[in-house]
Design a protein that fits this description.
Elements lengths: L1 E10 L2 E11 L4 E5 L6 H8 L7 E6 L2 E2 L5 H6 L2 E4 L11 H8 L6 H14 L1 H5 L10 H13 L5 E5 L7 H16 L3 E6 L2 H7 L2 E6 L2 E7 H6 L1 H7 L3
């Protein structure tokens, strides 16, 4: 479904991504793990069209989307849950979700999307008239994820969903991610919490200073001594 080929990204003189390649097949949950500053968020921003690559290809269902505007990429079936959640604090939960469906004109489709999201996140339905800025961090993460799901995407990009959350909420968010995966949603997950990410993923890549240093099944990487020492605290 998603294929990245020899992707290079520069910030001025800084070579942020140095020829990375990765794939996400239909129905997979693939994680990209690595330390802060490794280039994980840059990777997602480039895939979703928020950043331009210096060279390389981003293929979605075989089509090179590298030169396509971000709003058009959404229409092709990709949704991005950003780092830091970025909910609209002065809008209600339901207004936030409707913002996620801004490309949809069919009101029945929007209503169906809302019901589907509320099915995944019953807490959001309970708080649908509450201002998003008054939600807890975990609830805001649910809202950001639900907003992305409103377009019924082929693939969901998730950037650091556990950031800033308590250990209990981290477990809850990863349980939700696993449930979304089991429902058939294809996910590319960027996450510093390698233990939790590898626990729910099919496959994973390790990104270090802009390069893919390791790849394999989640189980293989979780058992690898290099990964255990660098990312799992073993």
């Amino acid at each position: 479904m998603l294929e990245i080929k020899d992707l290079h990204v520069h910030y001025g003189a800084i070579h942020a991504l140095k020829g990375i390649s990765l794939t996400v097949d239909d129905g997979e949950l693939v994680s990209l793990i690595g330390a802060n500053g490794a280039g994980k968020t840059t990777t997602l921003h480039t895939i979703s069209g928020l950043l331009s690559a210096s060279s390389g290809e981003v293929l979605l269902d075989g089509e090179n989307i590298q030169k396509i505007p971000a709003n058009t990429i959404i229409q092709k079936g990709m949704a991005h849950v950003p780092e830091g959640r970025h909910v609209f604090a002065r809008m209600t939960v339901e207004e936030n979700l409707r913002m996620g469906a801004y490309i949809i004109r069919d009101q029945k489709q929007i209503a169906d999307g809302l019901e589907k999201v509320y099915g995944h996140f019953p807490r959001l339905k309970e708080r649908r008239r509450q201002m998003a800025g008054t939600l807890s961090g975990g609830e805001q993460q649910m809202l950001a994820t639900g907003r992305a799901l409103m377009t019924d995407p082929k693939i969901l990009l998730m950037d650091e969903p556990s950031m800033g959350l308590s250990p209990i909420l981290v477990k809850e968010i990863f349980s939700i991610i696993q449930t979304l995966h089991e429902s058939g949603i294809t996910i590319l997950l960027v996450e510093q919490n390698a233990k939790m990410a590898l626990g729910v993923s099919d496959r994973a890549y390790v990104l270090e200073t802009g390069k893919i240093s390791m790849e394999g099944s989640a189980a293989e990487l979780a058992a690898d001594d290099r990964v255990r020492k660098a990312y799992l605290g073993a």
